[in-house]
Amino acid sequence: DAGVIQSPRHEVTEMGQEVTLRCKPISGHNSLFWYRQTMMRGLELLIYFNNNVPIDDSGMPEDRFSAKMPNASFSTLKIQPSEPRDSAVYFCASSSGTGQPQHFGDGTRLSIL
Amino acid sequence: GNSVTQMEGPVTLSEEAFLTINCTYTATGYPSLFWYVQYPGEGLQLLLKATKADDKGSNKGFEATYRKETTSFHLEKGSVQVSDSAVYFCALGGPSGGSYIPTFGRGTSLIVHP
User: Beta A65-71 vs A42-50: how paired, if at all?
Assistant: First the structure.
């Protein structure tokens, strides 16, 4: 079975550019989570959706970040404009139910120069 | 708010040694508790979980017991292998339908030498 699929795996871009990260959750899962991982802050929950509806976005750092889930099989995390401090590994995870992420993607390693 | 505290790493062991990674939590009510493992270049994988006090979660030789009286969920393995080298995350959250926001510890790196 396909797991959580994220793209791209790596992204290098200059500050000020728009960055779009994509996620395809496991089919049938109705909860989706976006996390950011850095050495300084560890694993931070940015936002999570249940049945395509954002339930908690209190972890989204600022207005430059936005996330959408237009349907049950696709989500995007967008950063516009990007800044060097956004450099991190971004993970998407999904689960059946609302409690806890069960399956993580392999992440997108983002570098903002 | 809810929080999870793990012992700082790295934890360095020889193969076949006994492993303990400490984890304590702060939460109101009765969350579920989890351990995840992250191998280099990969996402986290759910390793084991416990949903109520005194439950023991186990998987692949790892185990952890939900201790409400000490608010702890320490990870143990009797004999580690080189392939267990990874970063381990303790987390709290809710079962299906629960209301807890998933909260992770900072992670503990484990290095096992042959």
Answer: unpaired
Kindly report the backbone phi and psi dihedral angles of residue B24, in degrees, each rounded to the nearest multiple of 5, phi listed first: -125, 155
What one-letter code names the amino acid at A11?
E
Q: Residue B96: its pLDDT value, please?
A: 42
pLDDT digit string, tens, across residues B29-75: 788 899 999 998 888 999 999 988 999 999 999 999 999 999 999 99
* pLDDT digit string, tens, across residues A60-84: 988 999 999 999 999 999 999 999 9
- Cα distances (Å, whole numbers) of residue A47 to A33, A57, B12, B20, B48: 6, 4, 34, 32, 24
The pLDDT of residue A55 is above 90: no
Residues 60-99 of B with CB under 8 A from A: 89, 91, 93-99
- Chain A: give the shortest CA distance to residue B6, in Å: 12
Rounded Cα distance between A62 and A8, Å, is: 23
The 3-class secondary structure across B32-81, one letter per residue, is EEEEEEECCCCCEEEEEEECCCCCEEEECCEEEECECCCCECCEEECCCC
In chain B, which residues have their Cβ closer than 8 Å to the Cβ of A104? 43-45
Residue pair B55/B65 in contact by the 8 Å Cβ criterion = yes
- Chain A residues inside the 8 Å CB shell of B39: none
